[in-house]
Amino acid sequence: MKSPLIKRIPRELKGEIGKYLVIFIFMAATIGFISGFLVADDSMITAYNESFEKYNIENGNFILEDKATDDFVKAVEDEGVTIYENYYQEFDTDNNSDGEYESTLRIYKVRKDVDKICLMKGNMPGNDDEIVIDRMYADNNKLKVGDIIKVKDTEYTISGLVAFSDYSALFSDNTDMMFDAVKFSVAAVTDDEFDRITTDNMRYNYSWKYDKEPTDDKEEKTRAEELVKVMAANGILKSYIPGYQNQAINFTGDDMGSDRSMMITLLYILIAIMAFIFAVTTTNTITKESSIIGTLRATGYTRSELTRHYTVLPVIVTLVAALVGNIMGYTWFKDVCASMYYGSYSLPTYKTLWNTDAFVLTTVIPVIIMIFINAVIVTHKLKISPLKFLRHDLSRNKNKKATRLPDIKFIRRFRIRIILQNMSGYITLLIGIIFANLLLLFGLFMKPLINEYGDEVIDNMICRYQYVLKAPVDTQIDGAERYLMTSLKTTVEKSKADEVSVYGIQDDSDYLNADFPSDGVYASEGYLDKYELSVGDVITLKEKYSDKTYDFKIKGTYKYPAGLAIFMNDDEYRKVFDKDSEYYTGYFSDEELTDIDSNYIYTKITEDDLTKTTRQLKVSMGGMVELVEIFAIIMFIILVYLLTKIIIEKNSLSISMVKILGYTNGEIGRLYVMATTIVVILWILVSIPVLTLIIKEIYRYMMADMGGWIMLKIRPDIYITMFIMSVASYGVIAALQMRKISKIPLDEALKNVE
Amino acid sequence: MLLEINNLHKSYGNGVNRVEILKGISFDVKKGEFVVLLGPSGSGKSTLLNIIGGIDTPDEGYISIDGHKTGDMKDKALTAYRRDHLGYIFQMYNLIPNLTVKENIEVGAYLSKNPLELDELIDTLGLTEHKNKLPNQLSGGQQQRTAIGRAIIKNPDVLLCDEPTGALDYNTSKEILKLIEDVNQKYGNTVIMVTHNDAIKNMSDRVIKLKDGSIRKNYINDNKISAAELEW
Asked: Do A365 and A186 contact (CB within 8 A), yes or no?
């Protein structure tokens, strides 16, 4: 025979439909979003991984000073590779016909063999006045098929929006901290048109594919290192990027999977909080039904039968929420999440894949968490003897006496009693508030942090024009100051190697305001912060393409937020890197160095280059920030609502009783609602230092893979905004609770408990 | 012999607050016997009933049912003991508010391998027309009938009644007592009823009078009358 108690389940659901519905919607939406995210993530990663073969993505590329000679091609191809011509030219572009050239387009021919292009919308260029551009750049600049853009002097009609398979992240320069899909795009025109616009600015770029793919990373690296030697011996190499080092290809793949564990953790914390809410409501029901439980236990019902009875509803709600959530995940949220990816990366089209893993993670595990937490808490609660249940004596501690309170006003003592009585609920509330405010704070601080970082980068720019030269060349322009620079890599185990700029600065520099030491280095503040270093530590850096390492003792810090850098005296630099006294790598200058031939300039760093990171981060975050804020507030309201509801329900008899005695609803509110108000405000305040600690850790983890570093700073006014938003959300709930109090009938206390 | 109660001692509290509730209670109950435990408030009768019912434990002494001592039983065995042998009726009916009359009785039936026939019992209890009502739609007497139904549907060896008429008026009380009497006669269950109502002793086979935790009298009622004839 089935337990007749089962029949209570639908009735209980109906009786508390509001509560169950709120939790159901919240869980279904959360699970839906996470499931959608996992499905989109997995489908996208698969599409990305498959794109290497599907679009025949290169194993690497290099740029030569001039066209490759037959001898060069032969020498290189003898190493077991095939070389493909992949020339490009860069042009300033006006994309909104305002006469200002705000972007740079890197124009290729339409590729046919290697790094093929995925057409997302429209057509590939059929005529010479047609161009295809990157889909994400088009989105960021509100360009669509049919629009006209002006590239240098030529007007083109956009015939299609595309994803270049070798530019899933639009890095214009492989050493950039962040890609730039706002002011930089790749584009393709017809072969004839490409030849027509050929200028001196042509980049003789070649891609290569191994005839036989290396079997592992080690082999790939060895082969790439061999290849570069052959290339350097046979031609003038201007750039050399093996595929595994190409950020434009790899950044997306590295970044895509990285949010997964955080999302899953987020889901489990939310489910655990919901499980605690269920458990608190159930223990409240157990208290209310103690005589029934006593009777059932006295009659022979086992504790496990009752535990099952009291946990079945939360489990059913979770299971249904998980199933509904998964359906929404596969249909609607998947597209939302995919569009988030498309908002950050130039990914090709994808196909939705069934994801067993995602189903288990978002269905089976939440149900297990729900069962576990509820079973533990309910079993513990039901451990009391049947007799005690019959006597409504549910306190575990036999000798527990009423907590002595100081001789303060009755109303205050009353409130303290309410707080003490509901401590378990309030502790759950504290966890919930910390979690909701964690999300809220993330939503609030990210944008200002990035804006401030952008401002700081500009305020602390070394100079307006920083030139990196291919070879030393003189300038007659006043104020230009020579410097030395190279890039080394960090050698910290278990973390992705970062590129660190090593500067040699002359004494009494006009551009850097410090006396750099000759027996150590000054490190940029971001470097110290990212690697948790301090003055006095010794760092080890290695050369990019060899295993040679250098040790530097940190003697001080220098404010240079644009990237990870160390600074030393130029003489020391020459000694360390074994350079002669005439050697230098570039100029700092506040004026443009017009007298230097552009062929000598490797790159010119301006404000625009340094603000790429902030620009792209802002675009990538897009509407996410607001979404997180809204989610956090909804979660806050739901949590506080459910827990305060329990507190009022638990005390409905007493509330009815004091009503009979003549208390007004306002007075009762000042007792019961005010107690919760005090706790909520206290918890919000308590959460601030806790949140700061948690955010520091999460931020470090979240940003660890990013090249460079943005130092975490949360302005005090952000905490104030968070406080105000939390308190305002609570205000809504307090009003609801007041309404609930006014609805408790006078005769509640007089009624038979049955 | 169905039940053997031997030298039960029970006290609550510590030190100066220590109160001895039972001071060496011993008696036997035969199968099918209707026993009334009579005594004023604080005499220890409810505590005694709870110990018999396996929901409280004695400090000393033991209960033996069919030769099995409850004192030797662990929590799980005690639950099984209650499940297999006992039915409970309380002064407050302790019905489940969101289950109907029929379903509340089924709560008892669920525990038994051979429960009584449900509809027949509902009929015996006079609840046929109320069987689909919720407890809050019933009078006190009807609620207590439902509670009796829940207790006896599993046809327990022993029916423990703790002031079953304590919350009821005279006429309803008599109806309930009649019902318990009928059940005792029809199904042959042993009934142990705790009451402070002196008149009820007249319907029992055996009367045990308690005072201050001790048995003052334990005798066979030779002048047993039916519940319908009771007056108080």
From this structure: no
Q: What is the pLDDT of residues A122-167, one digit of tens each?
A: 999 999 999 999 999 999 899 999 999 999 889 999 999 999 999 9
On whether any CB of chain B is under 8 Å from the CB of A386, the answer is: yes
For the CA atoms of A600, A606, A609, A613, what is the dihedral angle to 10 degrees? 150
Q: Among A8, A298, A387, whose Cβ lies nearest the Cβ of B96?
A: A8
Does the pTM surpass 0.80? The reply is no
Joined together, the tokens standing for residue B53 give: 């019912």
Cβ contact B55–A385 (<8 Å) = yes
User: Collapsing DSSP states into helix, strand and coil, what is residue A602?
Assistant: strand
| Distance of alpha carbon A133 from alpha carbon A158, whole angstroms | 7
Residue that is written with structure tokens 């207790």 in the block: B151
In sequence order, the β-bridge partners of residue A266 are none
Assess contact for A488 and A502: CB atoms under 8 A: yes
3-state secondary structure of A129: coil
The residue of chain A nearest to residue B115, with distances taken between CA atoms, is A1
Write the ipTM: 0.70
Query: Which residues in A lie closer than 8 A to residue B87 (C-beta atoms)?
Result: 299
Across the interface, of A5, A7, A295, the residue whose CB is closest to B94 is: A295
Read off the DSSP letter of residue A249: H
User: Cα separation of A733 and A730, whole Å?
Assistant: 5
- 3-class secondary structure, B210: strand
Query: In this complex, do B86 and A291 lie within 8 Å of one another by their Cβ atoms?
Result: no
d(Cα A352, Cα A738) in Å, to the nearest integer? 48
Q: Which of B92, B108, B136 sits opposite A299 (nearest CB)?
A: B108
Question: What is the domain partition of chain B in residue ranges?
Answer: 30-54+83-229
CB count within 10 Å of CB B128 equals: 12
pLDDT tens track for A464-498: 999 988 778 899 898 999 999 998 988 887 667 78
- The answer, for A397 touching chain B at a CB cutoff of 8 Å, is no
A272 burial (CB, 10 Å; 0-12 / 13-18 / 19+) is middle
Domain spanning B30-54+83-229: CATH superfamily: P-loop containing nucleotide triphosphate hydrolases (3.40.50.300)
Q: Following DSSP, what letter does each residue of A2-14 receive, concatenated?
A: --GGGGHHHHHHH
Q: Mark A36-72 as b/e (b = at least 16 C-beta within 10 Å).
A: bbbbbbbbbbebbeebbeebbbbbbbbbbeeebeeeb
Give the span between the Cα atoms of B136 and A156, in whole angstroms: 81
Distance CA A205, CA A88 (A): 7
